[in-house]
Design a protein that fits this description.
By secondary structure, this protein is α/β, with parallel strands linked by helices. The protein is 23% helix and 15% strand. It has helices at residues 94-101, 130-135, 149-160, 165-186; strands spanning 21-23, 27-30, 36-38, 44-48, 68-72, 80-82, 106-109, 124-127. The strands form three sheets. A three-stranded antiparallel sheet has the order 1-2-3, with no helix packed on it. Strands 6-7-8 form a three-stranded parallel sheet. Strand 6 (80-82), helix 1 (94-101) and strand 7 (106-109) form a beta-alpha-beta unit. The radius of gyration is 27 Å and the shape is elongated.
Length: 208
């Protein structure tokens, strides 16, 4: 109903005969009982969070389709908000990965390992509670300001995507693997009955 005030696709094609009823393109609301009912015929509603990047295409064949309203939620978005709370503190929200994939800065609620993905003041902001989230509206002060934080986060995300997956693995993961391998070679089993050998087997311990 509210969207119909600003978007014509959500408006009813005709006004209800009963003044106590409110109508949108999809349903009717009885203002007295607050009962909501579908119209006898209503358009199908399709919602997609695609960013319409060059890697994404949404093509619909118009044959044999009903009247259809498409809502694209990330077509021209300037800031993403993630409210994902990890019960284990070990899993990262893939929705943030998707948003970063199209260079969308993110404000995310904090938990144990979030810093591995969202870098505070670099590619987004991290908040602890609703008060801190409300304070983040300052990102939109003087919007769209090329010198503003939001634009700087966007630039940082663009630059970070210049590093491809294999290059990132070599820079980030490989040094950790080599450090663990070196530590394993220095460790010897405490059980004197076991032969002395490195932490890694010979097949695992081969240099990269």
């Amino acid at each position: 109903m509210k969207l119909g005030g600003t978007h014509s696709l959500f408006r009813a094609c005709s006004e209800p005969e009963d003044a106590a009823m409110e109508r949108s393109a999809f349903m009717e609301l009885d203002a007295g009982s607050r009962l909501v009912m579908h119209l006898r015929e209503w358009p199908a509603l399709l919602v997609s969070s695609t960013g319409w990047t060059e890697f994404e295409q949404l093509t619909l064949d118009g044959h044999n389709l009903p009247s259809l309203v498409c809502v694209i939620t990330a077509g021209s978005v300037d800031l993403g908000v993630c409210l994902h709370m990890s019960s284990s503190g070990l899993d990262l929200p893939m929705k943030v990965v998707d948003m970063f994939g199209c260079c969308l800065p993110v404000c995310a609620v904090n938990f144990k390992c979030l810093h591995e993905l969202v870098k505070h003041e670099e590619n987004g902001l991290v908040f602890e509670d609703s008060e801190e989230l409300a304070a983040l509206q300052m990102l939109f002060s003087n919007f769209p300001d090329p010198a503003g934080k939001l634009n700087q986060f966007w630039k940082n995300l663009r630059e970070s995507q210049q590093l491809r997956w294999d290059e990132s693995w070599v820079q980030t993961v490989l040094p950790l693997v080599m450090d663990i391998q070196l530590l394993g070679q220095r460790l010897k089993p405490r059980d004197p009955c076991c032969p002395s050998r490195s932490f890694f087997s010979e097949s695992q311990g081969k240099p990269f």
